[in-house]
Automatic annotation (TrEMBL):
<feature type="compositionally biased region" description="Basic and acidic residues">
    <location>
        <begin position="245"/>
        <end position="258"/>
    </location>
</feature>
<dbReference type="Pfam" id="PF00551">
    <property type="entry name" value="Formyl_trans_N"/>
</dbReference>
<feature type="region of interest" description="Disordered">
    <location>
        <begin position="221"/>
        <end position="258"/>
    </location>
</feature>
<keyword id="KW-0808">Transferase</keyword>
<feature type="domain" description="Formyl transferase N-terminal">
    <location>
        <begin position="78"/>
        <end position="215"/>
    </location>
</feature>
<dbReference type="GO" id="GO:0004479">
    <property type="term" value="F:methionyl-tRNA formyltransferase activity"/>
</dbReference>
<dbReference type="InterPro" id="IPR002376">
    <property type="entry name" value="Formyl_transf_N"/>
</dbReference>
<protein>
    <submittedName>
        <fullName>Methionyl-tRNA formyltransferase</fullName>
        <ecNumber>2.1.2.9</ecNumber>
    </submittedName>
</protein>
<dbReference type="InterPro" id="IPR036477">
    <property type="entry name" value="Formyl_transf_N_sf"/>
</dbReference>
Length: 258
């Protein structure tokens, strides 16, 4: 089989997520494509500060900066110093998988390049851009891994909302992709327990681990994918980034981000 993996770039969680997948299936992944979010960086930073607040936001920014600096060191020095990679590109290089940054995945030339790879599967893990119908048509299957137990918590901040609402579990859902985010038929779910001591950070780490295991399992068994089940779409299931009011209530309940 041949697969193309779509994702985005950040140094904290995605390298952890993708490393087990490439370690076990680098031979079938034709390319790793980073499709970054198409919103301006200033807007992304404003959204993150609105969610995390100044204190946690500053700590998170320092961790991002540390990861970025480690990844900028020559060779595998940053990986050796930290004991793990801090970029998606570093993981792809480690396993000799071709890597590309695609600023616009709807660009006809990009779609044509993907089509020439003749992939069986497009696998999306936190891709920053919507994959168009033309791109989805390049492969026999297109599967997204979403960091919640769909249909609950479509959208963003998937580690925040289960803690905010006091859930006892969350998880990762594999679903077939459509042009609408998080809306395709469900193939399988991988539950993750939520402990009283969990934070947003620890939940993201759990989701990365569970998602990696789920992706490896799907690639192991492809094309024998699980049967589809409905993914009912309700407006109440969609959640964007929390704002200052929800952040204050989150902290008042004793929850933490980091």
């Amino acid at each position: 089989m041949r697969a193309v993996l779509f994702t985005s770039e950040e140094p904290l969680y995605l390298p952890r997520y993708l490393r087990p997948i490439l370690a076990s299936h680098a031979d079938v992944i034709e390319e790793v494509v980073v499709a970054p979010f198409d919103t301006p960086t200033t807007e992304q930073l404003r959204d993150q500060l609105g969610m995390y607040g100044f204190r946690a936001g500053t700590r998170l920014a320092m961790r991002y900066l540390r990861g970025t600096l480690l990844d900028a060191l020559p060779g595998r020095l940053g990986w050796q110093l930290a004991g793990r990679p801090h970029s998606v590109e570093a993981v792809a290089r480690r396993y000799d998988v071709p890597f590309e940054r695609a600023s616009d995945v709807t660009d006809p030339e990009f779609v044509e390049r993907v089509a020439r790879l003749d992939p069986d599967l497009l696998l999306s893990i936190v891709a920053g851009q919507r994959l168009s119908a033309e791109l989805l048509d390049c492969a026999t299957d297109a599967v997204n891994l979403h960091g919640s137990l769909l249909p609950a918590y479509r959208g963003r901040a998937t580690a925040f909302w289960p803690l905010y609402y006091g859930d006892d579990q969350t998880g990762v859902t594999a679903h077939r992709m459509t042009e609408q985010f998080d809306a395709g038929p469900i193939l399988t779910r991988r539950p993750v327990p939520i402990e009283p001591t969990d934070t947003v950070d620890s939940i993201y780490r759990k989701l990365a681990s569970a998602g990696a295991t789920l992706a490896v399992d799907l690639l192991d068994r492809y094309p024998d994918l699980p049967p589809e089940t409905p993914n009912e779409t309700r407006a109440a299931d969609y959640h964007g980034l929390p704002g200052p009011a929800e952040r204050r209530e989150f902290r008042d309940r004793g929850n933490e981000f980091l």
